[in-house]
Q: What sequence folds into this?
């Protein structure tokens, strides 16, 4: 063997040894008994929540509440020991939401996103999350049924914490029938966009199922989020129809304007019963004595606050920082969302032994149970069961608006079982009620 | 039938009043100074927020009409001062209409940013004047008295402007330097164009902030109202014609009543109606229904 041949032989042996050594190291790393390494840097979670525009009155201080939810999780040890870093953007509208989701995924490199109060935003971002961004996304509200029935019928990454429209409508119809069992005529109005049409249709379907002799004497959809709206024509028409009940779904700044204009025109005196669904929100700017209003388990003043759930540790912090308790579910849903994520990461890590990918976290969320701020919640068919609902009467007590005669909707009436379609479920409602 | 017709008129009154005042804010600068300025929309936003804030803190629950009127006068003066200050420090350096459009449109972002800093992003309301003035029932229609107050202020302002323009020597100077007159000749005759322009901007600012202040008790003060104000004012000028007080009033009625009727009969068209009216006007009479072909 020449010197050159010997040199080549030694190089080959060295390379082979190196390759064998590396393979050994790889095999060692894949040992299932040894857990994968968890990054130590903060885990970035994106929040797209309304800070301006029509929805800002519904959820004032949403940015502060997102920070507080992250702080709460960090005090509980973070997610797999990683502190949560909240990156918060203003939802504004559907188009902006899509841009912000893209920014969060591509620039900020977040691992999950919580957001979207408005159905229009949720409907706009959901298809892109599923097809392009592929990141666990927990919609805080976006209650339209179209989300999982039409827009993303087979979701993998998108989940919803807020209620869906069927839950909402069943709660509203049952409470209304309890309050006024002899109702004969109803006028109903909502903002003119996907959710408004959806919720009115559901309300009407469910009402006619439970009380077929009810007549909807006036159904209308007013412009949504118009700056400086004038609702006088709609209000006049409601009063001219002389309904037994007016059911209104105007919310946010629309809701405040509707309330002021209806009050100035005497609608609350002329219509025997008004159910202004969101009149408990907007810091009392929509409240009138004796009006029916909806509240959700997410509401800081809702019973679980006193039942020892995380709410009892969480909401006082909100009160201290913002001066008001949250009046709408979304703020509490942020904490619910983070608890879901924390649990999903921990469960996935326990099972696989590896720091979970976005796909694994998304899969783990399905079927997950947690103790959330408003009690035990499960993710069934990408829909969280947590947001319990109640309807009560508004009453001004020494200058503060409170809800009285609360009617809590039982769980079996507000969750569509996964083996049923929405229409099949609505068909069974009258039997369930009996 | 009469009741229905009256309901359309009464329900349109707040929008009519607001459009009259607001559109003339933009129209006045356009007519007298031959300038395009969108600053009025920002001042409108400030007017709404300041009225809610001042009235809320000064009057609170103990509402009084003279007190609220005093707040409105103060807000009007503030609007005039802002408009003059913006003109003196910024707008007078803008030499072409393209520059003015772009620069004043950008200025709207500054106004909304300032509002955000001061009042945050949550809409604010002060509805006491609207709620506490009460209501009257006319031929089966319940009408808040505030609607009449608002319309009365709008009519008073237009009459005062008409009197100023057509019955005073200063008004003559304004008309001489307007689009109907000849600025060079007016200057040669001793009209102080700088003073005329400054006062024009002051009046425009006052009208814009008053429009915001008067409408705020009905709809609240919220982000984005300036965009709507801008569109409605521009559409009213397209339909009514530049510099026509009568045109502004009648167009406000056309747009206001058309919106109320569509809200009841065809709600999907409610927001589109002003644009449809403006489109038809542009096709049939490009200078506006009450406008005239201008020299410049």
A:
């Amino acid at each position: 063997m020449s010197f050159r041949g010997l040199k080549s032989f030694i190089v080959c042996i060295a390379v082979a040894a190196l390759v064998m050594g590396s393979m050994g190291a790889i095999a060692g790393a894949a040992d299932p008994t040894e857990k994968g390494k968890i990054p130590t840097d903060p885990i970035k979670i994106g929040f797209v929540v309304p800070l301006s525009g029509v929805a800002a009155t519904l959820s004032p201080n949403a940015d502060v509440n997102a920070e507080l939810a992250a702080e709460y999780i960090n005090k509980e040890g973070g997610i797999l020991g990683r502190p949560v870093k909240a990156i918060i953007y203003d939802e504004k509208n559907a188009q902006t939401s899509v841009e912000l989701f893209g920014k969060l995924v591509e620039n900020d490199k977040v691992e999950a996103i919580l957001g979207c109060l408005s159905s229009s935003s949720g409907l706009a971002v959901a298809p892109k999350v599923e097809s392009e961004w592929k990141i666990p996304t927990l919609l805080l509200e976006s209650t339209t049924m179209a989300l999982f029935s039409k827009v993303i019928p087979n979701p993998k990454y998108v989940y919803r914490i807020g209620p869906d429209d069927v839950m909402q409508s069943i709660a509203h119809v049952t409470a209304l029938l309890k309050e006024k069992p002899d109702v004969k005529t109803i006028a109903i109005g909502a903002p003119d966009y996907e959710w408004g049409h959806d919720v009115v249709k559901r309300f009407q379907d469910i009402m006619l199922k439970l009380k077929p002799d009810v007549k909807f004497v006036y159904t209308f959809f007013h412009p949504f989020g118009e700056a400086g709206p004038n609702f006088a024509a709609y209000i006049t028409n409601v009063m001219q129809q002389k309904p037994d009940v007016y059911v209104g779904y105007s919310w946010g700044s629309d809701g405040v304007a509707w309330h002021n204009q209806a009050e100035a025109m005497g609608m609350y005196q002329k219509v025997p019963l008004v159910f202004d669904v969101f009149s408990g929100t907007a810091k009392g700017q929509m409240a009138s004595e004796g009006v029916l209003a909806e509240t959700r388990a997410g509401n800081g003043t809702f019973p679980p606050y006193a039942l020892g759930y995380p709410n009892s540790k969480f909401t006082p912090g909100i009160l201290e920082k913002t001066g008001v308790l949250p009046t709408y579910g979304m703020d509490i849903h942020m904490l619910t969302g983070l608890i879901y994520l924390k649990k999903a990461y921990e469960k996935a890590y326990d099972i696989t032994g590896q720091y979970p990918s976005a796909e694994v976290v998304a899969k783990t969320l399905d079927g997950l149970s947690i103790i959330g701020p408003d009690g035990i919640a499960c993710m069934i068919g990408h829909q969280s069961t947590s947001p319990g609902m109640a309807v009560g009467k508004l009453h001004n007590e020494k200058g503060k608006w409170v809800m009285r005669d609360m009617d809590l909707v039982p769980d079996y009436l507000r969750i569509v079982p996964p083996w049923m379609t929405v229409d099949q479920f609505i068909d069974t409602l009258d039997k369930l009620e009996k | 039938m009469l009741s229905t017709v009256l309901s359309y008129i009464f329900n349109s009154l707040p929008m009519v009043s607001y459009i009259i005042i607001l559109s003339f804010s933009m129209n006045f600068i356009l007519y007298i100074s031959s300038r395009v300025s969108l600053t009025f929309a920002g001042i409108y936003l400030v007017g709404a927020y300041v009225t809610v804030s001042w009235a809320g803190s000064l009057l609170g629950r103990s509402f009084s009409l003279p007190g609220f009127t005093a707040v409105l006068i103060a807000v009007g003066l503030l609007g005039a001062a802002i408009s003059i200050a913006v003109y003196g420090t910024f707008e007078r350096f803008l030499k072409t209409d393209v520059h003015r459009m772009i620069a004043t449109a950008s200025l709207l972002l500054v106004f909304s940013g300032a509002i955000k800093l001061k009042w945050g992003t949550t809409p604010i309301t002060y509805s006491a004047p609207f709620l506490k003035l009460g209501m009257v029932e006319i031929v089966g229609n319940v009408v808040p008295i505030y609607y009449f107050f608002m319309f009365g202020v709008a009519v008073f302002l237009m009459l005062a402007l008409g009197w100023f323009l057509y019955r005073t020597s200063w008004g003559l100077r304004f008309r001489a330097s307007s689009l109907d007159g000849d600025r060079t000749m007016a200057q040669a005759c001793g009209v102080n164009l700088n003073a005329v322009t400054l006062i024009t901007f002051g009046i425009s600012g006052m009208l814009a902030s008053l429009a915001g202040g008067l409408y705020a008790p009905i709809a609240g003060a919220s982000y984005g109202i300036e965009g709507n104000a801008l569109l409605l004012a521009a559409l009213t000028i397209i339909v009514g014609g530049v510099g026509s007080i009568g045109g502004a009033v009648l167009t406000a009625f056309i747009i206001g009543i058309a919106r109320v009727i569509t809200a009841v009969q065809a709600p999907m068209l409610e927001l589109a109606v002003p644009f449809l009216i403006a489109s038809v006007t542009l096709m049939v009479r490009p200078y506006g229904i009450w406008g005239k072909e201008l020299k410049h």
Residues 76 and 210 of chain B are 5 Å apart (CA to CA). Chain B has a mean pLDDT of 90. The longest helix of chain B spans residues 2-33. Strands of chain B lie at 135-138, 141-144.
